[in-house]
Amino acid sequence: MKKRILVTGGTGYIGSHTVVELQQSGYDVVIVDNLSNSNADVVDNIEKVTGIRPAFEKLDCLDYEGMDKLFTKYAGIEGIIHFAASKAVGESCQKPLLYYRNNLVSLINLLELMPKHNVKGIIFSSSCTVYGQPDTLPVTEAAPIKKAESPYGNTKQINEEIIRDTVASGSPVHAIMLRYFNPIGAHPSALIGELPNGVPQNLLPYVTQTAMGIREQLSVFGDDYDTPDGSCIRDYIYVVDLAKAHVIAMDRILNDKQKESVEVFNIGTGRGLSVLELLNKFEAATGVKVNYKIVGRRQGDIVKVWADPTFANEELGWQAKATIEETLKSAWNWQVKLRERGIQ
Prior knowledge:
alpha/beta, Rossmann fold, UDP-galactose 4-epimerase, domain 1, 2 domains, 11 helices, globular, NAD(P)-bd_dom
């Protein structure tokens, strides 16, 4: 009997790649997504990759009654991987209440429903934004949580606190919080990848869309930061490597391998790349030029951050394996495939 996992936001970018890895690892997957930043045809493409069609329900995690009914309909859900959230730093500064409602209430609903439906554990999609601008780099899980630079970052901090407080109160829930760095790239099949609705909020889709001619020009926000070339530095993690971390974490919860009821792991490569370095590597890896310009700084951006993934490497037995060149090529192959499919 396959163990059943609920993936919220499962037609989204990271969610869809994680569904593939879960299915290929023998899990039965149920996807919930309101399709606010994704498309239902992702389910078709997941099936093309794995040969298995995941169950899919168009539903908003803010809908408590709807979620309650879903757990009854798909009885025996043992674990949840919670991706469903609004995630753009810039937008969160403009629409803070949207972010607080979407990101906090969706988690609260799940945590209330889990004991009722005997769901053992949850993996929470957290972020390196909880560290703010770290005092020392690379950043470990022991680094202090800084005041958030954006409402988006603040929702991640508050959600981590909600999980800790819920477990501390005696709730039988187990949790692993994965603090991602910057996920990029696409599945090697080029059947799933990052395809946000509207204008991309993340760097690499904007790069590939500009390289394809869909966007006229990429804006690099600031070249006067305290970094070697003046642009912000991030730790870019291949999305498939990130997805695999969720499978390992779920196995850890369901097979009672946790050392504590709530655990935290950094999921990154341990390497920092500046925005301008990433653009240069993209052009070198693909042979395609990107039209970009330097503009002013963007509200909410951290100057530089990259992971110390040692704890995840040693305790989870997980590590990032893809090279940045392979990752950037996968993103471009995905963009080319979208053009072939007549998308954009």
